[in-house]
Amino acid sequence: MATDTNPVATELPDDGGSGRRRIGLTDTTLRGVLLTAFLLLIVAFFTSRDARFLSADNGLNILVNASVIGIVSLGQLLAIIGGGFDLSVAGIVPLGGVVFAKLVNAGWSLPAAVLGVLLVGALAGLVNGIIIAKARINPLITTLGTLSITGGLALTIADGVQIPFTDIDAGVLAERSLLGVNNHVWILLALSVVIFLALRYSVFGRYLYSVGGNEEAARLAGIRVDAVTIEIYVLSSALASLAGVVLASQLLTGSGTAGTDAALQSIAAVILGGGSLSGGVGGVPGTLIGVLVLGTLANGMAILSVPSFYQTMATGAVLLVAVGVSQIRRGSRRRR
């Protein structure tokens, strides 16, 4: 199915995809420039308040802390492009960390433990996808329900306490390696490249934007909408469980409460990066910049000793502004 003849292809240029139409390319470029300018403005503000903010060590610290949400946001991006979203990641991230700690402490090798966690995450995503695609239950209700289940399961497995690693070598995913950069930052970059190429050049990418842009038109065009929807949530949950592994590697412990803000932050990053809750719009570059914006805000406020609850309020405010701008832009495109 060629993109040019797709009944919902009018949304595709907004994702940073083919960019065949001049108006789509201009809109995407402008959004990227404005978001980058906003990021630079934040950097300039915090640097003016504390010169330590602009140091190389602090820059790496921002990347290290933002990479966990970055991995979750890549999966959230797929869900949002497909016309839904995934709240259950806030339960799957801690579940992944707890299961990883349990498996490592039980003597599993690192690759086997990571694979086991990914399977647990994929299974949770499969449940989400089947309920949404087959039972036609709204993603909000579905993922809110599985959030409660997976979050409660994480606390149950951990017995309400943290699970320290018996072998600190299990924290290798968060250790520094190539060029002095932490391993999980490279993992985020590798995943970003793979997903960017998949969205831009693969059949799955075209189908995903089609389903998110107009599900009924995609179904009439012969796309297996249910299969695409299930794949979206399997990938989203698997990536969230991987983020849980990374977070546990950073903390050297599995915790049923670590990463419970993943849903809010990942949705905020995707929407801030140009995604739309209406579906069919979004891309990897914008999402990564959105992640950096949130990470920079959190880091700057921490340096200035701003209480953590103000950081949560700032994230919520950024999300509201991003959604408002997205709706204004969507209305403007429709009028044009």
Could you explain the architecture of this structure?
The protein is an all-alpha fold. It is built from 12 helices and 2 strands, in the order αααααβααααβααα. The protein has helices at residues 22-49, 56-81, 89-105, 110-134, 139-157, 183-201, 203-213, 215-220, 225-251, 262-272, 284-303, 308-335; strands spanning 163-164, 253-254. It has a two-stranded antiparallel sheet. Helix 2 runs parallel beside helix 6 (183-201), helix 2 (56-81) runs antiparallel to helix 9 and helix 3 runs parallel beside helix 5 (139-157). The longest helix has 28 residues, at 22-49. The chain starts with 21 loop residues before the first helix and ends with a helix. The model is unreliable at 1-25 (pLDDT under 50).
Brief overview:
With 336 residues, the chain is mainly alpha-helical.
Layout of helices and strands:
Blueprint: H1 22-49, H2 56-81, H3 89-105, H4 110-134, H5 139-157, E1 163-164, H6 183-201, H7 203-213, H8 215-220, H9 225-251, E2 253-254, H10 262-272, H11 284-303, H12 308-335
Antiparallel strand pairs: 1-2
Helix pairs in contact: 1-11, 2-6, 2-9, 2-10, 2-11, 3-4, 3-5, 3-9, 4-5, 4-9, 6-7, 7-9, 10-11, 10-12, 11-12
